[in-house]
Amino acid sequence: MTKVEDVKYLSLDKRHAILTCLALIVKADEEITEKENEEIIFQVMHILDMSPNEIRKGMMSPSELRGVLDTMSGDELGIMGLLMGRVAGSDGKIDAREINSIESILKVARLNPDHIKVIINAIKAR
After folding, report:
1. Which of 8, 34, 74, 85 is most deeply packed, by most CB within 10 A?
2. Nearest to residue 43, comparing CAs of 93, 71, 2, 82?
3. CA–CA separation, 1 and 72 (whole Å)
4. Burial (CB count within 10 angstroms: exposed 0-12, middle 13-18, buried 19+), residue 25
């Protein structure tokens, strides 16, 4: 999987992990804007392709999230990083706390440090 459009073909657990990470990024700067809400709704409906019942499950616990992140490929994690960047930048500014949160999540997921740098640089360049 190398395209954002393919995220909808991931397992429900992986899509739920991505949703949990997106929610963590939205909360990172302690300000949830209407644009961030709109971006999350767009990603859930059109990219993650999750039903209302699937969304109602709520946030994964840290141990659940770590377990699922450990099963994701580098490509999957890279795309998740870019999706988190879209949410972070959807309000027109990317806060340092959002960048730090994205970087921390990708480190916890054990993504290659060089790949993390590429993702963070791409996000900052938006």
Report:
1. 85
2. 82
3. 11
4. buried
Q: Are 8 and 48 in contact (CB under 8 A)?
A: yes
Q: What is the dihedral of CA 35, 40, 43, 44, to 10 degrees?
A: -150
Q: State which amino acid sits at residue 23.
A: A
pLDDT in tens, 49-108: 988 888 888 789 999 999 999 999 999 999 999 999 988 988 888 989 999 999 999 999
- DSSP letter at 30? S
Identify the sign of the CA torsion 61, 15, 44, 49. Answer: negative
Q: Count how many residues are written for the chain.
A: 126
CA 45 to the chain's CA centroid: 14
CATH code for the part of the protein at 4-124:
1.10.3680.10
Spatial separation of the C-alpha atoms in residues 23 and 67, rounded to whole Å: 18
Our CA angle for 61, 67, 69, nearest 5°, is 100
Task: List % helix, strand, coil for the chain (3-state, nearest 5).
Answer: 70, 0, 30
